[in-house]
Structures are given as structure tokens and as C-alpha cells.
Amino acid sequence: MIVITSENQKEHFHVKANNLLFIKAANNYVEVFFRSQQNVKKQLLRKTLKGIEGEYLSSPFLVRCHRSYLINPNNIDHIIKAGNKTVLNISGVVIPVSNKYISRLKKRLP
């Protein structure tokens, strides 16, 4: 279970680790994308991506692949490499992979 607590400690979002798809930064907010009954849903929370990454640094369910994205490597559908650019496909969403994070991502792939 992954629990994300908002910065003001008033909101707590719980999601099973297997259902978590990815987390996208949106300024001081994050959009948490998850699977619920075969549908992709989104939850908006006031929290920074860096804060979440710090809390789940050693978690096998979250890895940074871009300055704006934390992904669950267990839910990657496809990895597409074209030249020196790499993108991931997770539930139909294309997510960029920065060269800075590619080696870290490769280590964490299932």
C-alpha cells in the first residue's frame, strides 16, 4: 500500500502499489494516476514530487524517469527507444525518460 499525505497533513491518499501507474508533477501539486476497476483515474494532491520521491526512495514501486514523473516500473506496457530518445507507455499514456534517469530506471525494471 502506498500512502501519500498532502503537505498540510489533512489529506491522505491510499492506493495499492500494484494499482499505482505514475505520478506527474503539477507545480506544488501532484497528479496521481492509478487503476481502479480497469479504469485509469486521477487524484490531485498538494505535495511536491520531490517530497514523494524522498519518502519512497527505496520503494520498488516508484522510480523517477523524468523531472516531472515518478513511475511504477511494474506497470510499464512498452519501452520505445528512437535514436537517443526513450519514452514509456503506461496504460496508453506516453511518458518521456530523461537521459539523466535512464540508468536508474534500467536497474529497477522487473
Task: Tell me about this structure.
The chain has 110 residues and is mainly β. The protein is 13% helix and 49% strand. It contains two helices and ten strands, in the order βββββαβββββα. It has helices at 49-55, 102-108; strands at residues 2-5, 12-15, 20-26, 29-36, 39-46, 63-66, 69-71, 78-82, 85-90, 93-97. It has a five-stranded antiparallel beta sheet. Strand 4 and strand 5 (39-46) form a beta hairpin. The longest helix has 7 residues, at 49-55. The protein is globular, with a radius of gyration of 13 Å. The model has no long low-confidence stretch (mean pLDDT 93).
Output the strand order for the largest sheet: 5-4-3-7-6
State the end-to-end distance.
18 Å
Approximately what portion of the residues adopt beta-strand conformation? over 45%
* Number of separate helices: 2
Pick out the low-confidence regions: none
SS elements, strand count: 10
CA radius of gyration is: 13 Å
Order of helices and strands: EEEEEHEEEEEH
Structural class, by secondary structure, is mainly beta
Helix content: 10-25%
Major β-sheet profile = 5 strands, antiparallel
Q: Which word captures the global form?
A: globular
Average pLDDT, all residues = 93
Oligomer kind: single chain
